[in-house]
Design a protein that fits this description.
Blueprint (H helix, E strand, L loop, with lengths): L3 H12 L25 E3 L2 E3 L5 E4 L14 H11 L11 H12 L5 E5 L2 H16 L3 E5 L6 H4 L30 E3 L5 H8 L4 E6 L9 H13 L3 E6 L12 H4 L5 E4 L10 E5 L4 H5 L12 H16 L1 H22 L4 E4 L6 E4 L4 H14 L2 E2 L12 H23 L18 H4 L1
Parallel strand pairs: 3-13, 5-6, 5-7, 7-8, 8-9
Antiparallel strand pairs: 1-2, 2-3, 4-10, 9-10, 11-12
């Protein structure tokens, strides 16, 4: 008999398109038919499924809880605020407080606007940037959401977003009139940049500052210089990288500043809040853009963000998660060397990733998740680090991974098909940047 998790997911697939609200939470990209999928409780570094089984979370969602699940200080502040109502006919003062706080953290900025999701924030920034530049064409480097403006890149060729998103991503429903409005380029690829510079009518360059690849400083400076010279709006999407290696956006580390910036995920420690920051000189121009949403005015997101940022600043959490991530990378390096496994380690220290350098890499990834799950650990080949990840958790993870790496090494050396040991189908391919 299937457990409650699998039974509920089977029901969900019949009434919810694709089964879940977020692509990154589809069980098929982890362990088809076996991944728990649903939770009944989450606290610190642990998650309980519908069967009340407790798992150590060594994946940690999609990066929204750097302070751990159900952080006491943040939840207490939100619960206290909610007693006085979360929404009404008037605005909350926390919007103004949060705007001031973020501008203080990013002195180059002069205004702030809030939304609830990264996709929304990205769409707002594009509307703003086009209004500022008076030009429509966009160059992108990275993953920036699901809206039409972004997915339009694949209208010309279904492979255009292969280096940034899902392999041969389908774009059903995206207006064909948007063809040739979005042009992808690869991080640190100067040949790509040369082509981008030749695009007529280019008004916006949007990029993630750091994801799987460390940025080349000259590359970033070249982009900034080109934008200044040609009235192009430079947008940094730091919905994921923000507050992970610096107090604020990671661009502060490189001292190269955008015209518009998105921050999200970690900023509210699980409560929905994202921000768009921009230069003061553009505030009148963007004020003419119509962007508005009822639930952008709910208070809990801003309350959570203010408390989360306070804790980050007080406890230097961005330094802590970087340090923990470095330990994780060291574990991977030590165990791969011990078992003579070829792997590639990459990504921010606070979001470490690795890849098996074999043709069966996806099957090995599936095997890893399967065996970890047997030990009540949620794991894949990537981890969003949280300060809730303690040394005892890392040691437990290392002990279990040691045996798994040993098995995979034997599969390779003895030419043993890993499929014999898989108890599910091989996991589906997820985002390119985590599976390449």
């Amino acid at each position: 008999m299937k457990d409650k998790n699998q039974k509920l997911y089977n029901e969900a697939r019949k009434i919810i398109p694709n089964g879940t609200m977020l692509f990154s939470k589809k069980p098929e990209i982890y362990l088809p038919g076996k991944w728990p999928t649903y939770y009944s409780k989450a606290k610190k570094a642990y998650v309980w499924d519908l069967e009340k089984k407790r798992y150590l979370d060594m994946y940690f969602g999609v990066g929204q809880n750097t302070l751990g699940y159900a952080n006491f200080e943040v939840d207490t502040e939100v619960n206290k605020s909610n007693k006085n109502g979360n929404m009404c006919s008037l605005n909350s003062e926390q919007d103004v407080k949060l705007a001031k706080k973020l501008i203080k953290i990013h002195p180059w900025a002069g205004f702030a606007r809030f939304a609830k999701s990264g996709g929304e924030a990205n769409a707002v920034s594009i509307r703003y940037a086009r209004a500022i530049s008076k030009k429509d064409k966009i160059a992108i480097c990275g993953y920036h959401g699901w809206h039409d403006w972004y997915l339009a890149a694949n209208l010309k060729s279904k492979k255009k977003l292969n280096d940034h998103h899902i392999q041969e991503l389908k774009v059903d429903g995206v207006p064909k009139a948007l063809k040739n409005t979005v042009h992808p380029f690869r991080m640190n690829n100067f040949n790509d940049l040369k082509k981008i510079k030749k695009i007529k009518g280019l008004g916006v360059i949007k990029m993630e500052v750091y994801r799987e690849k460390k940025p080349n400083i000259k590359f970033l400076k070249d982009i900034r210089k080109h934008c200044n010279k040609n009235n192009i709006v430079l947008i940094f999407d730091e919905c994921t990288s923000g507050f992970r290696e610096t107090f604020g956006g990671i661009h502060k580390k490189y001292k190269i500043y955008p015209d518009l910036l998105m921050l999200g995920k970690a900023m509210g420690n699980g409560y929905p809040i994202t921000s768009i920051l921009g230069r003061k000189k553009f505030i009148n121009m963007v004020s003419n853009c119509f962007v508005s949403s009822t639930f952008w005015t709910e208070k809990s997101g801003a309350v959570a963000a203010l408390k989360t940022i306070e804790i980050m600043q007080r406890d230097k959490t961005y330094k802590k998660i970087k340090n923990i991530g470095q330990k994780i990378k060291k574990i991977w390096q030590q165990l791969s060397t011990k078992h003579q496994l070829k792997i590639k380690i990459y990504g921010l220290d606070s979001i470490p990733c690795f890849q098996f350098l074999y043709k069966n890499h996806l099957a090995y990834k599936t095997f890893l998740t399967q065996e970890m799950l047997k030990n009540r650990i949620l794991a894949t080949t990537q981890i969003y680090i949280s300060i809730a990840h303690e040394q005892k958790h890392l040691q437990n993870y290392k002990n279990k991974l040691d045996n798994i790496f040993k098995s995979i090494s034997e599969f390779e050396k003895k030419n043993i098909p890993v499929n014999r040991f898989l108890e599910s189908k091989i996991s589906e391919v997820g985002f390119k940047r985590y599976t390449n």
